[in-house]
Amino acid sequence: MMMLNQRLTAVSKYITGDVLADIGSDHAYLPIYAIENKLCTSAIAGEVVKGPFQAAVDNVKKYSMQNRIDVKLGNGLNVLETSNHVDTITICGMGGPLIAEILQNGKEKLMNQPRLALQSNIQTSALRRTLMQLDYHIVNEEILEEKGHIYEIVIAEYGYKALNDIELKFGPILMHSNASLFQKKWNRELEALKNIRSHLDQQKHQSRLEEINREIKLIQEVLS
Asked: Which of 15, 101, 128, 153 is most exposed, with the fewest beta carbons within 10 Å of its own?
């Protein structure tokens, strides 16, 4: 039986429909787990790097799922055919800007309007902005900590909904959740900004200082 780490287990709860596409699938852990637990009936595991691609192929074989999981070598959503009729796309373990780029570059593969389950390591705001540009709206968000790192999960479905700058930065759902991890994440961010500020020269870095002060003020407002 496939065991998943905390992050991927959290993402797996949002898989819907028959066909899953896991992009940047690493060892194909998520597709194998999803099929074992009847979260989908078949999957495509996409991987751009040869090593993890081979590991995914080997793993799929080890779990005898060659007829259920199609492991493909390719960049981002290029591994999908328009005829695949994917119900859920998962992209996990990357920075927000990279996930955003993958979605933007492969937007013609979203014609089927699949649910997007995305787990971002950093800068989730870039990802939220891209979802809005692609006419997707956020239906759920989670924040979790694993091995000292704080991660965000964003679940989006097709249909446009405008977000303001504060919602893009903090998350339209997370900012109202009052989760202690949300507080922890942004308090960390606050300390980092104050630390940068203390090393800047008033004269030389005036505009950067103004920007940091604005950022600090915004975080303090949201946290209070």
From this structure: 101
